[in-house]
Amino acid sequence: MDQRKFISGEQVENVKPQKKLICNFAEPRSDVCEMDGDVRIHGNFSSIYFINSFESDTSVTNETWQVKPYARKHDRTLMERIRELTIASSHDPFDAPTCTVNHSIPAVVFATEGYTGNFYHDFTDVLIPLFITSRQFDGEVQFLISQMHIWWVHKYERIFKKLSNYEVIDLGKEVKVHCYPHAIVGLHSHKPLSIEPSRAPNNYSMVDFAKFMRTAYALDRDSPISLRENPRTNKPRLLIIARNRTRQLVNADEVARMADGLGFEVVIEEASFFRTVAQFAQIVNSCDVMMGVHGAGLTNSIFLPTNGVLIQVVPFGMLEGASMADFGIPAGDMKLKYLQYSISEEESTLIELYPRDHPVLKDPKSLHKQGWSVLSKIYLRQQNVRLNVTRFRPVLVEAMGLLN
């Protein structure tokens, strides 16, 4: 283990090798502290104690650190809702509570407050960082969750059981003192909905994560249909992700008829709360191409077979950069073929709400300058999409070609 210690981004060298607590506060997405030794976790007191050996550097005795174990620290407003955990380091075992339960496995501590419940943030902020942090232990690790939402843990039960062989502990309700030989507080996070292999244990990648998800949800298809074999009888399946509130594809049926004419077998489905993750994962994995308007539903691309095709429809309003960062780059990292289609002003229902000379239509940049709350209200919440099927047709033709 690297024995350097990071405090607020400053690296301190020449720390003696006996020192076994390392905190990294320099990363933009999350703070993480890792301890190797005598770790005592007192859940409902939000306290974690690390007992140094008596031979350790006495200059670091009785230090404390505060960590909010949710991987979105750049969002200051959100992070105000995340409970702070205190890590206290001491040479004296009597400074810490006595162990109630002793474990021989590592612990990973994180929070499920924040934006959990939004499918995109479930994976970007928690599940992918949890995979990065804990997969290296091959199930021999226990999760302790601060601000735990039991419904959320049940929703992703298959993932939790695949990552850990042990029961999840609700920190807020736990009165016992759990002791571990190793603990990680906080989750490593690299970028939205993705992994940087060079920074991950065992060089894990998004391809590895996608394979892990297929195993967790018992998905059969690792690759899309081959149109080279029996091209006349093999019809690729196209999934159109429907939305029932904002950014609806209002002429989805018309798009489906056009796609059918091109040779696709078309499925229109909504990833609603009434379906389990497992049920929708099966639908997505059965398809070769998935398309939808920018939004959390595109996160389901993690269930597509490798080399499948993702088509993202970008709403009007200069949202290309965010769309690429949120789903385009992750698609490439998962080895999916990716196509991005930006709608025209005529394909936006905003033309029914605003005069043609209004800044919303003529000067989107001015709305961006007013901040996220303004631009998201208009371009993400007020807008629906009516695709020009003639203009969009070449995108589906290209998708068909990519399957060859």
Automatic annotation (TrEMBL):
Pfam families: Glyco_transf_61. It is found in: Golgi apparatus membrane. It comes from the Eukaryota. The keyword Metal-binding does not apply. Residues 119-310 form the Glycosyltransferase 61 catalytic domain. The keyword Cell cycle does not apply. GO terms for molecular function: pentosyltransferase activity. PANTHER family: GLYCOSYLTRANSFERASE, GLYCOSYLTRANSFERASE-RELATED. This is Protein O-linked-mannose beta-1,4-N-acetylglucosaminyltransferase 2-like isoform X2. It comes from Ananas comosus (Pineapple).
